[in-house]
DNA sequence: CGCCCCCTCGCTATTTCTGGGGAGGAAGAT
DNA sequence: ATCTTCCTCCCCAGAAATAGCGAGGGGGCG
């Protein structure tokens, strides 16, 4: 086994990241991830985008069979890797997660049956608009070997995961932020106050204007944002970064 | 000027990250960030945590005077660096941001007057519960020099920023107080539907439940999120990454 | 000089949300 | 076996938001 032979090889990392940066589609990422797996000598590497709706998207070296089973069984919602990474910032060794749940243990057994490997290491990735993805490596070996591998390659892997996600964000299907008209300063102030819980009356008072005037701002902002109601407008403004709360 | 003399020095990076990992408080981070500034030979480095309540927190080498002015003037809400990074995943050169707004230009002039530097480079950082932070470098030099510096040190800086944020998350003041209250699946569904513009009646219909039941979810979610009304609750849920639109 | 956008204010009527209250069943955790 | 959490449903009165109609002054731009 060539676990981590790449370690410390700065040139190789540079080359990899360059190739990552010049990738032009999911197919390129798929090719790269397979090469990456071979270079690191691990069983599997997966980049896995978890949408809020439960939709999934990504690439990796898992068997299609396993991926389908994972989706069918709705493992996403009980997978300690996903849940654990969702609550953490730093990369995690799968061993350190909470596998005590019934569903979790069933998943683990199932995963091993599909040849996923007893060891794993996942890096949480977060982008704008609540994007959340995972970059995971899994392997079959003992604890010491895995510990050595993760300690040695941790930094490189963080970087690779970062560049991987950067690319994946570019390829995201259907994320076309319609050219929204920009809000006027007053509109932004009004929306911001509503977003922090003020009622229209309170917001108007805070801005020292009549409630009616404030309403005009909110209505105007709502139309500009193409929103159906105030709550929707605030949500859109937040998602688009028009206001910051 | 020793801009970027550290570049390519893997040993130095290793040492730095080790020291970062052994930091035990914000004071240590402050010391480290000052050393980092000297090592890189840039004018300023700042780690800046933007809390979902609009509170700010962090450390850096800016003058206290400027920091106070920034907060007082509410520059956070108009700063193209913050807004721009909020919508991006990859690090950004300040030059590439949109400085066309009136407030933005006023901010820039003000910043230069306080000796911030005409060049800048910021790395967006995102953690659990919608945490958002910035790791920024700023300097006074011409475009070419800055370009060289950022291209050379980009990867190291990403790593440093990552470890910096990891540490800062550990030191977060009110880390577990109310953030732990997680929403139930139904509550998340309800909030998500409201966030995309559904009225309560529509949302209830979509979920095939009575409007009353939906209301219970929304109320429950509102209490868990410590929100004053529905709009506020949706805003908080979005900011914390509990729901995604 | 118009034109357009921004800021400010007023009125009415209808619909929707808010904030309490209570109640029962199902599932999982201790 | 009990306890908690979640899901589901119901009532009511008052507060708030929405949709539509207005008006006028100020500033920038061609």
Short description:
The first copy, chain A, is 51% helix and 12% strand. By secondary structure, the first copy, chain A, is an alpha+beta fold. Chain A folds into two domains: 10-170, 2-Layer Sandwich (Beta-Lactamase), CATH 3.30.450.80; 185-239, Arc Repressor Mutant, subunit A (Orthogonal Bundle).
Q: Could you describe the 3D structure shown?
A:
2 copies of one chain form a homodimer. With 245 residues, chain A is α+β, with helices and mostly antiparallel strands. The first copy, chain A, has 2 domains: 10-170, 2-Layer Sandwich (Beta-Lactamase), CATH 3.30.450; 185-239, Winged helix-like DNA-binding domain superfamily/Winged helix DNA-binding domain (Arc Repressor Mutant, subunit A, Orthogonal Bundle). Helix content of chain A is 51%, strand content 12%. Chain A is built from 10 helices and 5 strands. Chain A has helices at residues 10-21, 26-40, 64-72, 80-86, 102-113, 143-170, 185-195, 200-206, 211-224, 230-239, and strands spanning 44-50, 56-60, 92-93, 119-126, 132-139. Chain A has a 5-stranded antiparallel beta sheet with strand order 2-1-5-4-3. In chain A, helix 7 (185-195) crosses helix 10. The longest helix of chain A has 28 residues, at 143-170. Chain A is elongated. The N and C termini of chain A lie far apart (50 Å). The interface between A and B is large, with 48 and 50 residues. The first copy, chain A, binds a DNA duplex (30 and 30 nucleotides) through residues 102, 184-187, 199-201, 209-210, 212-213, 215-220, 229-230.
């Amino acid at each position: 086994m060539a676990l981590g032979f790449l370690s410390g090889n700065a040139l190789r990392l540079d080359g990899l990241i360059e190739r990552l940066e010049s990738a032009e589609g999911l197919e390129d990422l798929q090719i790269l991830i397979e090469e990456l797996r071979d270079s690191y000598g691990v069983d599997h590497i997966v980049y896995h985008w978890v949408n809020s709706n439960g939709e999934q998207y990504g690439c990796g070296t898992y068997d299609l069979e396993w991926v389908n089973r994972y989706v069918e069984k709705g493992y996403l919602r009980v997978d300690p890797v996903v849940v654990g990474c969702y609550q953490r910032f730093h990369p995690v060794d799968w061993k350190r997660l909470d596998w005590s749940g019934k569903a979790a243990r069933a998943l683990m057994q199932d995963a091993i049956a599909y040849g996923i490997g007893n060891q794993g290491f996942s890096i949480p990735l977060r982008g704008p608009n609540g994007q959340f993805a995972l970059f995971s490596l899994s392997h079959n070996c003992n604890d010491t070997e895995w510990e050595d591998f993760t300690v040695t390659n941790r930094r490189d892997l963080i970087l690779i995961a970062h560049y991987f996600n950067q690319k994946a964000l570019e390829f995201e299907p259907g994320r076309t932020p319609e050219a929204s008209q920009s809000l006027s300063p007053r509109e932004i102030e009004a929306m911001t106050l509503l977003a922090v819980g003020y009622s229209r009356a309170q917001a108007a008072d805070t801005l020292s204007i009549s409630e009616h005037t404030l309403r005009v701002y909110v209505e105007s902002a709502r139309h500009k944002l193409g929103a159906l109601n105030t709550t929707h407008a605030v949500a859109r403004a937040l998602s688009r970064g028009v206001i910051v709360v």
